[in-house]
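Worked example 2:
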Amino acid sequence: MFDKILIANRGEIALRILRACKELGIATVAVHSTADEDAMHVKLADESVCIGPPKAADSYLNVPQILAACEITNADAVHPGYGFLSESARFAEILEEHKIAFIGPTSEHIRLMGDKIQAKETAAALGLPVVPGSDGAVTSGEEASRMAEQIGYPVLIKAAAGGGGRGMKVAESAADLETALATARAESKAAFGDDTLYMEKYLKQPRHIEVQVIGDGQGNAVHLGERDCSLQRRHQKVWEEAPSPALNDDERATIGATVARAMQKLNYRGVGTVEFLYEGGEFFFIEMNTRLQVEHPVTEMITGIDIVIEQIHIATGAPLSFAQEDVRFSGHAIECRINAEHHATFVPSPGLITQFHVPGGLGVRVDSGAYAGYRIPPYYDSLIGKLIVHARNRNECLMRLKRALDECVIDGIETTIPLFSALISEPDIVNGSYDIHWLEKYLEKHQGP
């Protein structure tokens, strides 16, 4: 086991990792920018090191500073959390070169799945169902036009190095294609420094279904069921639940087993999430995230498995501590992402939290690094906490979520809590009848463009 883990992240995920380390008896190092010196994970860690000014490029993405923090504190492993350096193959290689363990997949797998074109080709080779589309990069307008006619409109133009909806445009017809290509290429270049594009069939009313996997890099891999992440705004997840209300038992067993077999073939090490679009009873691979997901708690709630602790064990070289037949699913779980944003305009709302009261009771979990008197800095992602509830079935889960939202008090800043309080009464949400476009349409109707 590791003696000391440096947590190369901030906010709720840094605190989540710290708690897992404490339960394993592992010493922790928090790194932080000058803007985060009062953060909860900094207060609770065994040691802390300031690694730079507020700008992420000068602190949380500053690899030399993180390496220096490892050397100063004698940390023998780094957990990157999600975001920042979590999917940087080069960062994983640099740590390895310095004899520091990277708590995540191999750099090879990070690089492979980080390129959307290679990832799709790999997924198909591993036996995963893929969305009809180009076999590789689309390099010219003429090629794009031929491919679009072959696939059939509408088509989706996507950045090969993309994520979070950037560099992604829909062409409804041939008349839209040239503009969609130019816009996606410009966005991709600006966001990722890479304007490589590819094309897929655009599914009109799909759901976003992802499968949580864990592999040990020794030929063993299991799945921990699926999550439904279809409630999204601008391709950003807002609400996640497990299991999906859209799948039947045969479908979830089949896609879970398919993904687990694929990860065994890949000899994947660590935790990961294989994401699909689901429509008309069919699954279509879209990407794989080679890291811990924001929404991992809903899976933990229905399986009772601590995914972060398992992730740390595997990074030491240990085999998986359980087999597929040991995984038991129980009840239903829902997570709401609480952001420091106005619930209607989604304008960020950094500032001082004057009151902070989180709900409690059976089946309620809050992952947050916020507290009364904490000032949310304006430099980072607006996520300040996650409210997760678990119950015996989905109806009970919804009622528990309603009660928990009513108890939650965060004053001094705007939050998205009122949005969730409104959503929970919507018939489509209650019935589980929504797709990836539902929330955008709801917001247009109820809150304007």
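The CA atoms of residues 357 and 409 lie 5 Å apart. The chain has three domains: 4-91, 132-201, 207-447.
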